[in-house]
Amino acid sequence: NRAYLKLWEALTLFGTYPKPNETALDLGASPGGWTQVLQRFGVKVTAVDKADLAPRIASLPNVTHLKQSAFALEPEKWPTKIDWLVCDIACYPNRLFPYILRWIQSEKVKRMIVTIKLQGEEDLAAIAPFLEMNDSRVTHLFYNKHEVTFLHCREGLGGFIVT
User: Does the active-site annotation cover 110?
Assistant: First the structure.
Protein backbone atom coordinates (compact mmCIF):
# COMPACT_ATOMS: atom_id res chain seq x y z
CA ASN A 1 0.00 0.00 0.00
CA ARG A 2 1.03 3.64 -0.32
CA ALA A 3 0.49 4.73 3.30
CA TYR A 4 4.25 4.98 3.76
CA LEU A 5 4.21 8.04 1.49
CA LYS A 6 2.29 9.97 4.19
CA LEU A 7 5.14 9.32 6.60
CA TRP A 8 7.78 10.46 4.12
CA GLU A 9 5.86 13.69 3.46
CA ALA A 10 5.36 14.34 7.20
CA LEU A 11 9.06 13.80 7.87
CA THR A 12 9.89 16.28 5.11
CA LEU A 13 7.59 18.88 6.68
CA PHE A 14 9.15 18.25 10.08
CA GLY A 15 12.47 19.34 8.63
CA THR A 16 14.30 16.54 10.43
CA TYR A 17 14.60 12.81 9.93
CA PRO A 18 15.10 9.86 12.24
CA LYS A 19 18.69 8.96 13.05
CA PRO A 20 20.34 5.57 13.55
CA ASN A 21 19.76 4.08 17.00
CA GLU A 22 16.83 6.36 17.80
CA THR A 23 13.68 4.62 19.00
CA ALA A 24 10.21 4.60 17.50
CA LEU A 25 6.80 3.30 18.47
CA ASP A 26 4.54 2.57 15.47
CA LEU A 27 0.94 2.33 16.67
CA GLY A 28 -1.42 0.57 14.28
CA ALA A 29 1.59 -0.72 12.39
CA SER A 30 0.19 -3.51 10.21
CA PRO A 31 1.14 -4.29 7.48
CA GLY A 32 4.33 -2.37 8.33
CA GLY A 33 4.96 0.36 5.74
CA TRP A 34 5.73 3.02 8.35
CA THR A 35 7.80 0.54 10.36
CA GLN A 36 9.89 -0.20 7.28
CA VAL A 37 10.51 3.49 6.58
CA LEU A 38 11.73 4.05 10.14
CA GLN A 39 13.83 0.87 10.14
CA ARG A 40 15.61 2.00 6.97
CA PHE A 41 16.85 5.03 8.90
CA GLY A 42 18.46 2.66 11.41
CA VAL A 43 15.76 3.28 14.02
CA LYS A 44 14.83 0.62 16.60
CA VAL A 45 11.10 0.20 15.97
CA THR A 46 8.45 -1.34 18.18
CA ALA A 47 5.48 -2.02 15.91
CA VAL A 48 2.16 -2.41 17.73
CA ASP A 49 -0.87 -3.97 16.07
CA LYS A 50 -3.29 -6.84 16.69
CA ALA A 51 -2.70 -7.91 13.09
CA ASP A 52 0.49 -9.48 11.79
CA LEU A 53 3.16 -7.44 10.09
CA ALA A 54 4.13 -8.45 6.58
CA PRO A 55 6.67 -11.28 7.05
CA ARG A 56 9.46 -9.43 5.22
CA ILE A 57 9.01 -6.44 7.56
CA ALA A 58 8.62 -8.49 10.75
CA SER A 59 11.95 -10.16 10.01
CA LEU A 60 13.91 -6.91 9.56
CA PRO A 61 16.67 -6.10 12.08
CA ASN A 62 15.67 -3.66 14.85
CA VAL A 63 11.95 -4.42 14.43
CA THR A 64 9.95 -5.81 17.36
CA HIS A 65 6.25 -6.59 17.01
CA LEU A 66 3.88 -6.33 19.96
CA LYS A 67 0.76 -8.20 18.80
CA GLN A 68 -1.87 -6.29 20.74
CA SER A 69 -4.09 -3.25 20.56
CA ALA A 70 -2.17 0.02 20.67
CA PHE A 71 -4.81 1.32 23.07
CA ALA A 72 -3.78 -1.38 25.57
CA LEU A 73 -0.42 0.39 26.03
CA GLU A 74 -0.29 2.73 28.99
CA PRO A 75 1.96 5.69 28.17
CA GLU A 76 2.73 6.34 31.82
CA LYS A 77 4.08 2.79 32.21
CA TRP A 78 6.14 2.66 29.00
CA PRO A 79 9.64 1.79 30.23
CA THR A 80 11.76 4.11 28.03
CA LYS A 81 11.81 7.44 26.24
CA ILE A 82 10.72 7.39 22.58
CA ASP A 83 12.24 9.57 19.86
CA TRP A 84 9.39 9.03 17.37
CA LEU A 85 5.79 7.98 17.93
CA VAL A 86 3.97 7.38 14.67
CA CYS A 87 0.34 6.35 14.47
CA ASP A 88 -1.96 5.47 11.58
CA ILE A 89 -4.72 3.77 13.58
CA ALA A 90 -8.20 3.60 12.10
CA CYS A 91 -10.33 5.06 14.91
CA TYR A 92 -12.53 8.03 15.66
CA PRO A 93 -10.74 11.29 16.53
CA ASN A 94 -12.60 11.59 19.85
CA ARG A 95 -11.03 8.28 20.94
CA LEU A 96 -7.62 9.09 19.49
CA PHE A 97 -7.17 12.54 21.08
CA PRO A 98 -7.24 11.53 24.77
CA TYR A 99 -4.86 8.67 24.04
CA ILE A 100 -2.37 10.87 22.17
CA LEU A 101 -2.70 13.49 24.92
CA ARG A 102 -1.67 10.84 27.48
CA TRP A 103 1.50 10.16 25.46
CA ILE A 104 2.29 13.87 25.33
CA GLN A 105 1.65 14.32 29.06
CA SER A 106 3.85 11.33 29.87
CA GLU A 107 6.79 13.37 28.48
CA LYS A 108 8.22 10.16 27.06
CA VAL A 109 7.81 11.10 23.40
CA LYS A 110 10.02 13.58 21.58
CA ARG A 111 8.20 13.74 18.21
CA MET A 112 4.83 12.51 16.92
CA ILE A 113 3.28 11.94 13.53
CA VAL A 114 -0.36 10.89 13.88
CA THR A 115 -3.02 10.39 11.23
CA ILE A 116 -6.47 11.64 12.27
CA LYS A 117 -9.16 9.76 10.34
CA LEU A 118 -12.15 12.01 9.67
CA GLN A 119 -15.64 10.55 9.51
CA GLY A 120 -17.11 13.15 7.19
CA GLU A 121 -15.93 15.57 4.57
CA GLU A 122 -15.90 18.53 6.95
CA ASP A 123 -15.59 17.14 10.44
CA LEU A 124 -13.58 20.13 11.66
CA ALA A 125 -14.91 19.90 15.21
CA ALA A 126 -13.22 16.51 15.52
CA ILE A 127 -9.78 18.04 15.00
CA ALA A 128 -10.31 21.11 17.21
CA PRO A 129 -8.58 19.59 20.28
CA PHE A 130 -5.54 18.72 18.17
CA LEU A 131 -5.39 22.28 16.81
CA GLU A 132 -5.18 23.67 20.35
CA MET A 133 -2.08 21.68 21.32
CA ASN A 134 1.16 23.59 21.86
CA ASP A 135 4.21 22.70 19.75
CA SER A 136 1.93 21.03 17.19
CA ARG A 137 0.48 21.40 13.72
CA VAL A 138 -2.38 19.77 11.86
CA THR A 139 -1.99 19.59 8.10
CA HIS A 140 -3.57 17.88 5.13
CA LEU A 141 -0.89 15.91 3.32
CA PHE A 142 -0.96 15.11 -0.38
CA TYR A 143 -1.53 11.41 0.37
CA ASN A 144 -4.20 12.02 3.04
CA LYS A 145 -7.68 11.17 1.84
CA HIS A 146 -10.43 11.83 4.42
CA GLU A 147 -7.84 12.47 7.09
CA VAL A 148 -5.30 14.99 8.33
CA THR A 149 -1.95 14.59 10.02
CA PHE A 150 -1.02 15.82 13.50
CA LEU A 151 2.65 16.70 14.03
CA HIS A 152 4.02 17.34 17.50
CA CYS A 153 7.51 18.03 18.80
CA ARG A 154 8.24 18.45 22.50
CA GLU A 155 11.02 20.89 21.56
CA GLY A 156 8.79 22.99 19.29
CA LEU A 157 8.36 22.97 15.54
CA GLY A 158 10.96 25.57 14.65
CA GLY A 159 12.09 23.77 11.50
CA PHE A 160 8.56 22.90 10.35
CA ILE A 161 7.93 23.75 6.72
CA VAL A 162 4.61 25.56 6.37
CA THR A 163 2.41 24.33 3.51
Answer: no
